[in-house]
Design goal:
With 497 residues, this protein is of the alpha/beta class. The protein folds into two domains: 314 residues, Alpha-Beta Barrel (TIM Barrel), CATH 3.20.20.80; 74 residues, no CATH class. The protein is built from 14 helices and 15 strands. The strands form four sheets. A nine-stranded parallel β-sheet has the order 5-4-3-2-1-13-12-9-6. Strands 7-8 form a two-stranded antiparallel sheet. Strands 10-11 form a two-stranded antiparallel sheet. Helix 2 links the parallel strand 2 and strand 3. Pfam families: Glyco_hydro_17, X8. Keywords: Cell membrane, Disulfide bond, Glycoprotein, Glycosidase, GPI-anchor, Hydrolase, Lipoprotein, Membrane, Plant defense, Signal. One of its GO terms (cellular component) is plasma membrane. One of its GO terms (molecular function) is glucan endo-1,3-beta-D-glucosidase activity.
Length: 497
């Protein structure tokens, strides 16, 4: 089973129709068996994910990302914001330690200063813009300001009266922050970071917003929401929220600052009061979102203009507090096995979707060689695995070490047992991966036959060598009741233009 996200490379730096959009992923680490940074990067590379957003600037993760070409957004955690926003020297030290020390080997392209500060940490709001400016000044001093953009992610709940989008405006109480923030983004040619969660808009509407409208499913023309002021048709919540942000910025006289969606997704599992947090809906939303973004569809207000988006998130974070849905936004489980296979067929040449259900069993990184040898002996003996390809002179003899040989034997047993649960454990020294461990002429059982690279030393396995980066706060998303009522009226009426 494998999911392939083939992602484009350019970050939008201005609102223009000639730039390609990209899909990235957020990497949270509230995972009980968090894979090591090396394993995380192996998964990113195997899935051709070229853009990632980290919730901090973890040194081990940044080192693992070095020389991969993957474009990285690092973050200043909220708890460090007050110190950086009040001290130019503190900001400079943060940049020196977390950015300058890693570039150019690690391709850092953006710094997210805080996360949803106005709604989750309002006491830090007065220093937010100062923090951005201090961070940017440190980049200028190192001649990195042309390569690395500085911004701050916002919850879409700071937008009031978000439907119709043409009437949207930012919460006026934040004008002392928003106006200088927009001036900063404009002057540095950065972008407005926005978190967009149609799932919460849908859930909090109590049935007023149709599920299809939230999931990007096709709507008949008479069910599309129409902005009476602009006569623009809206077929999904995502576009409506993004355009509401564009209109809110224009209300403050800023019309040339692009938007990058820093978080969007759909949970695959929820509590009993969240019946629409399902694998099918998560698959539908994320598959349609990826197609929508990579096709450069744009929004009704800015058709054809990139709205690059980071999917929330790479892994299911089982250690997050809160309802069941908080733990189930990931595309993958911690062992690298997809939660679901994205429906990407027909999305064009920029996407490839492997639905051959390929998973492999490999030796777990850092396992005791003696335990590996004992497991290898069992697999080739009582386990009845055909280990003849491991004999000297045979196609899988090289490399001649217990890790490589046990990986072959573990996988052969796993495949022979039809990948049944529990058949890839071997007393804790084996784990499942979606990366084909075949190499050269050595084709592993279960392989599609394509050439691969031996990856048994960086298998996508849980590891005690986990990163310590922070995850974002619990999702807090408030939808204006007036907005819900207007959307509901439009979506349930027959409107022809």
């Amino acid at each position: 089973m494998a999911v392939v996200l083939l992602l484009l490379l350019l970050v939008a730096s201005a609102v223009s129709a000639d730039e390609d959009s990209f899909i990235g992923v957020n990497v949270g680490t509230a995972v009980s068996d968090m894979p090591s940074p090396t394993q995380v990067v192996a998964l990113l590379k195997a899935q051709n994910i070229r853009h990632v957003r980290l919730y901090d600037a973890d040194r081990a993760m940044l080192l693992a990302l070095a020389n991969t070409g993957i474009r990285v957004t690092v973050s200043v955690p909220n708890e460090q914001l007050l110190g950086i926003g009040q001290s130019n020297a503190t900001a400079a030290n943060w940049v020196a330690r977390n950015v300058i020390a890693h570039v150019p080997a690690t391709n850092i392209t953006a710094i997210a200063v805080g996360s949803e500060v106005l709604t989750t940490l309002p006491n830090a709001a007065p220093v937010l813009v100062s923090a951005l400016k201090f961070i940017h000044s440190a980049l200028v001093a190192s001649n990195l300001d042309g390569q690395i953009k500085v911004s701050t992610p916002h919850s879409s709940s700071i937008i009031l009266d978000s439907f119709p989008p043409s009437q949207a405006f930012f919460n006026r109480s934040w004008d002392p922050v928003m106006v200088p923030l927009m001036k900063f983004l404009q002057s540095t040619r950065s972008y407005f970071m926005l978190n967009v969660y149609p799932y919460y808009d849908y859930m909090q509407s109590n049935g007023v917003i149709p599920l299809d409208y939230a999931l990007f499913r096709p709507l008949p023309p008479n069910k599309e929401a129409v902005d009476a002021n602009t006569l623009l048709h809206y077929t999904n919540v995502f576009d409506a929220v993004v355009d509401a942000a564009y209109f809110a910025m224009s209300y403050l006289n800023f019309t040339n600052v692009p938007i990058v969606v820093t978080e969007s997704g759909w949970p695959s599992k929820g509590d009993s009061n969240e019946p629409d947090a399902t694998i099918d809906n998560a698959n539908t939303y994320n598959s349609n979102l990826i197609r929508h973004v990579l096709n450069n569809t744009g929004t009704p207000k800015h058709p054809g203009i990139a709205v690059s988006t980071y999917i929330y998130e790479l892994y299911n974070e089982d250690s997050r507090p809160g309802p069941v849905s908080e733990k189930n936004w990931g595309l993958f489980n911690a062992n690298g096995v997809p939660v679901y296979v994205l429906h990407l067929t027909g999305a064009g040449t920029v996407l490839a979707n492997d639905t051959t259900n390929q998973t492999f069993c490999v030796a777990k990184e850092g396992s005791d060689p003696k335990m590996l040898q004992a497991a290898l002996d069992w697999a080739c003996g009582p386990g009845k695995v055909d280990c003849s390809p491991l004999l000297q002179g045979q196609q899988c003899y090289e490399p001649d070490n217990v890790v490589a040989h046990s990986t072959y034997a573990f996988n052969a047993y796993f495949q022979s047992m039809a990948k049944s649960p529990g058949t890839c454990d071997f007393k804790g020294v084996a784990t499942i991966t979606t990366t084909d461990p075949s190499h050269g002429s050595c084709k592993f059982p279960g392989s599609s036959g394509r050439n691969g690279t031996l990856t048994n030393t960086t298998s996508l396995a849980p590891s005690s060598n986990s990163t310590s980066s922070d995850s974002p706060p619990l999702h807090i998303h408030n939808v204006d009741p007036f907005t819900i009522s207007v959307i509901g009226a439009l979506l349930t009426s027959t409107v022809f233009l």
